[in-house]
Inverse folding.
């Protein structure tokens, strides 16, 4: 079963290209690659958002990217305030994702807004980690 692309979520996913270029510019090939796979997995899913293989691939690639950024942030950010901001970012990411899931389960169309905020917050969080390296 095909569904029309979700252009709002495709648009916010495309903001991941900013940390991709920034990681490339800073010659961090691991974060660059992890961002590429996150973009590919997410764009692939949101162009036909049907639960199945594409969604599983999106979940795997996004989690691999998340783990790489958390690892780099944890291993390389030693100062107190940047670390606290990093933990706050994780809390906000969890909150936006959790709210989007709960709203989706209730058939509340505002879930898209929370998921778009999640995507945008991911972009800023990735840029922040790369900046601190």
């Amino acid at each position: 079963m095909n569904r029309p692309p979700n252009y709002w979520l495709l648009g916010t996913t495309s903001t991941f290209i900013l940390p991709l270029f920034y990681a490339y510019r800073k010659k961090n090939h691991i974060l660059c690659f992890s961002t590429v796979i996150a973009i590919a997995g997410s764009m692939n899913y949101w162009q036909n958002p049907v639960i199945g293989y594409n969604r599983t691939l999106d979940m795997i690639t996004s989690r691999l990217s998340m783990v790489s950024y958390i690892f780099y942030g944890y291993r390389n950010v030693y100062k107190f305030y940047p670390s606290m901001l990093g933990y706050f970012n994780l809390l906000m990411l969890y909150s936006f994702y959790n709210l989007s899931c709960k709203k989706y389960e209730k058939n509340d169309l505002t879930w898209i807004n929370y998921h778009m905020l999640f995507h945008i917050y991911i972009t800023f969080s990735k840029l922040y980690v790369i900046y601190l390296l």
